[in-house]
Amino acid sequence: MKYTITGDNLQFVNVEFGPGEIMYSEAGSMVYMSGNVRMEAKAAGGLLKGLKRSLTGESFFVTNFHADGGPGLVGFAGEVPGKVMALDLRGGKHWILQKSAFLAAEKSVDMDIAFQRKFGATLFGGEGLILQSLRGEGTAFINGCGDFIEYDLQPGQIMKVSTAHTVAWESSVSYDIQAIGGIKTALFGGEGLFVTSLRGPGRIILQSMTLSKLANSLVPFLPKNDSGGIRIGV
Questions:
Q1: How far is CA 124 from CA 96, 209, 218, in A?
Q2: Residue 42's pLDDT band (cuts 50, 70, 90)
């Protein structure tokens, strides 16, 4: 399998793979494919894995891509304007993702769900109770809103992140939610009541924008009906 990531802030990944190799993605992620690529919707991992994926808000089925008679080419893109990044999971690496970050992967990569370890993170973390887990001897692709920045945290090093800006982190990184400060800071600081606290060792990936912030920034420019509500469509 070979790949290139193209574009600036509206990126997609172009994957070239051969007969016998299989790529899979979330439903609706495929942008284009060569004529010899065959698609197959399947509940990868069986009924239980399909139900688990449904809990994260993803499709019950994943789409498998097979190349027939020679190398095939598939392009994948996310649902929001932003970046695509490759994660090399070989060597026993294990990543945790926010539930909307997964894009596509080689068949050798296992996607499962992961639960928040602490109740505070569940209530206030912005990612909810269910996260996604990736491991296996292959490459996976993730996507996020806006730009990405990556840090390699040292043992005990802490990064505090505004809620929902965390895209992915290695399983060695501990994840928790902390109050942002005093009452005045919480009410007037503009950052909300809580921040995500990530403690190393391990790599973390952050995004510059969140889907909710993007949506809120567009609201003033959307057409409104006579009653003042937002008008969808013509």
A1: 18, 18, 24
A2: confident
